[in-house]
Amino acid sequence: MDEHQDHLQAPVIPQEPYPAGTFQQRLPRKPYPSVGGAFGLLGILLGVSFIGGALLGMLNYFIPAADAPGFMMIYLAAFTITLWIGLMFRRDKSFSWKSGRWYLWPLVLIFTVAFLIIREPVLQLFNEGEAEKDLISGLDAMNPFMLVVSVLAAPLFEELIFRGVILEGFLKRYRPGFAILMSSVIFGIAHVHPLQFVNALLLGLVMGWLYWKTRSLPLTIMLHFVNNLGASFLSWKFTEPGSGVREMAGSEVAFLVLFLFSLLLVFVTCLIVPAYLKTRPPQKMKLNEG
After folding, report:
1. What is the enclosing helix (H) or strand (E) of 275?
2. In terms of CB atoms within 10 Å, which of 1, 93, 104, 213 comes out highest?
């Protein structure tokens, strides 16, 4: 009888809360970010930049010399806030700092220089003439503050956000082709200006492909650094946007030979890298993946 009564007793409801993470472990979360989440990060980046730019414009009215250092401070603030928010939503706070195999570094260096050459005709198709000249001259590429942003800060912060956070999350959620393309589009939109969008889109496709193949942020940072250093030099040395390499070549025939040789180098590099590296497929969704 007592045993029967024990079965009829109401179940004991625990008074203490469930251990932290118990419910979350039952419901797997998709890797962060989704496309919507990535555009949210982009909105934060552009929003902070716009507010900072408006404040800088008012300050520049009274202190004209504050233009370049102010731009650097706004850039660093916008990207730091965006990166912090991106990591706050992502469960794994670490990045892939693998340096890659030693022979990849000279290959990437050669590839970057060749890429600077073969993209020039593409950029000239989107050249906006005098308006673009005003943009380039206004940036003053060789200003020390602009050099810090373009050559040092941009390769680090932009790779951490657009490859380390956004593309890494995309590769775990979507097919590689879509992940690379969409992250490159977002990377291009972040540069706002139409010509810069095309340039960043092309560069993003290259760095996205390299990151997918190697999962190495140091390699993409190095590629980004060399690209920005070369672009800063060309914009400082030559007044016509998107024609620096052509002017350095001296003639159309010399530029054509240089262009074809660079195209061959890019093609060979794209064959060599996959030959020595096994493609790492997108990881399956894991429990507690943020």
Report:
1. helix 252-276
2. 104
The Cα-based distances of 129 to 136, 139, 241 in angstroms read 11, 16, 8
Centre a 10 Å sphere on the Cβ of residue 79 and count the other Cβ atoms it contains. 22
What sections of 29-119 are H helices per DSSP? 35-62, 67-89, 104-118
Tens digit of each residue's pLDDT (9 = 90 or more) over 97-146? 887 777 788 888 888 888 888 888 877 776 654 444 444 444 555 678 88
Q: How far is Cα 241 from Cα 223, in angstroms, rounded to an integer?
A: 21
CA distances to 168, 210, 213, 249 from 279, rounded to whole Å, are 14, 11, 6, 37
Structural contact between residues 148 and 286, judged by C-beta atoms closer than 8 angstroms: no
Helix (H) or strand (E) holding 250: none
- Judged against a pLDDT cut of 60, whether residue 14 lies above it is answered with no
Residue with tokens 């890797």: 31
- Cis omega (within 30 of 0) for bond into 11: no
Q: What is the DSSP string of 4-25?
A: HHHHHSPPPPPSSPPPTTHHHH
